[in-house]
Amino acid sequence: MIIKLLLIASALVALAWLVRSQPSSRRLVITRGTALAVTVAWIAAVINPDIPQYLAEAVGVTRGTDLLLYALVVTFTFTAVGWSQRVRHLDERISELTRSLAIANRRLDDIESGADVGGSRSTAPRADVAQVRARG
Amino acid sequence: MVSQIDTRVADRSYSGTVPPRHAHDDVWVIVPMYNEATCIQQVVSGLVHEFPNVLCVDDGSQDDSLNLAATAGANVLRHAVNLGQGAALRTGFEYVLERTDATAVVTFDADGQHQVADAVAMVAALREKGCDVVLGTRGSARPEGQPEARRWVLRAALAFSRASSGLDLSDTHNGLRVLSREAVSLLRLRQRGMAYASELENLVARHRLSWIEHPVNITYSEYSRRKGQSNLNALNILFDLAFARVESR
Asked: Is B80–A102 a contact, with Cβ atoms under 8 angstroms apart?
């Protein structure tokens, strides 16, 4: 049955998207294209309720409502995968931001207190102190 | 001008009981902490006697950990939001690489389960052997007060770590380590949570860093047991690692 192929293929694609971390522009096109196609199909199905039934029979599903259910499951899966990836990328960015903020704040504190970190550091921090003093 | 600033830098870092020139001037101890107000002061006070450079990375604590650590003599960094122990360590690593001339870095848990004397011995071992990484090991003997369930989880974790990293380890996920500056610069941890410990071992193997193990004592206090990870978290760690492994291909 065609529907089995379609459903298994969609599950595999979802898995592939899940483990490939970088969303590509091709993926974006596919997502947007699908969203557009679903919207058009939705309106068409509302105008003519026979369309889902016709499509269902064409791919080997008994009822149009079953086909809609399958489509819903696939859409949900892809949405979940897409969001979990976005969240993961956001987490990474928040980590980077938090890290550089922590280090930058420390640097500010050091400059304000007129001393650098308690190590035997090098020229860079001393230049900072000198600069601040020169400006002040 | 320069000498003037030099004096002030020295005044600030060698205040209190720490002698002016110290054998561990070029060592930075990184203590990741999250809501550790109960004992962070004690931990830092113990450390600063031997190590003039202690860096506490506060991982967005809601309690007074940050001030307590600073009062006890630590340098402090603060994560604005809680990220996880792996992320806190990496922040410490990056700070040390960017802002100090440290030649070695010690990682030390904030809950008081490690002994300062062990850290000192491990730094000496790193210098003596000239290796990149010294990992603390609890050895095969069961530490006093270690719960039975924890023992089994650690055994499973050890078997997993040995298999995945290929290193002939005798312990894993022990928070006490000494790393050379070179090692720190290569260990770019991506795991934010507890899985970083396994990731670190894998990176040691991948970069072919020279490493040894050093026996350490662990104190299982009521506090550290309560504060520590639940045994179930081992499953989360496995999941994080499996995911990262598939993803990086």
From this structure: yes
For A24-41, write each residue's pLDDT tens digit: 787 788 888 888 998 998
Q: What's the CA gap between A116 and B8, in Å, rounded?
A: 9
Mutate to test the interface with A, among B18, B100, B245 (most CBs of A within 10 A): B100
Cα–Cα distance measured from residue B55 to residue B15, given in angstroms and rounded to the nearest whole number: 16
If you measure CA to CA, which chain A residue comes closest to B81? A98
Q: Could you read off the pLDDT of B47-92 as tens digits, one per residue?
A: 999 999 999 999 999 999 999 999 999 999 999 999 999 999 999 9
Rg (CA), chain B: 18
Task: Tell me which residue of B214, B210, B199, B18 sits closest to B106, measured CA to CA.
Answer: B214
Nearest CA in chain B to A127: B2
> HSE of B42 in the Cβ direction (CA atoms, 13 Å)?
9
